[in-house]
Amino acid sequence: MKGKWEVTAQFIADTQMYAVYRLRDVDAVDHSGNREYAGGYVTDRAEAEFVAERLNAEDEEKGPESGNPQDQKTKNITSIIGYNEAFDNGE
C-alpha cells in the first residue's frame, strides 16, 4: 500500500530545498528506492506542502485503489506550480 504524500527537506549547495514524496510500500523500510516523488525540488516549503495536500486530497477522492496512473497526476500538479528554475535548466 502506498503512503500519503509528504514533504522532505535537504540542503543542496547550502540552500534548503523541499520535495514531495510518498512511500511506494508503507510496510517496507523508508529508503530512496521505496520513494515516489512528485516533481522536483523547490525552495519554498509552503509550495511543497500545497502540492502534498492537493495530491492527498485527490487520492482521497479516488479511493485507496483507484488504479489511475500517478504519473499524469503529478505532472498536472507540478505544472500548476512550476519547477525550481535550477532544476528546469538541468543544473
TrEMBL record:
Residues 67-81 have a biased composition (Polar residues). This is Uncharacterized protein. Residues 56-91 are annotated as: Disordered.
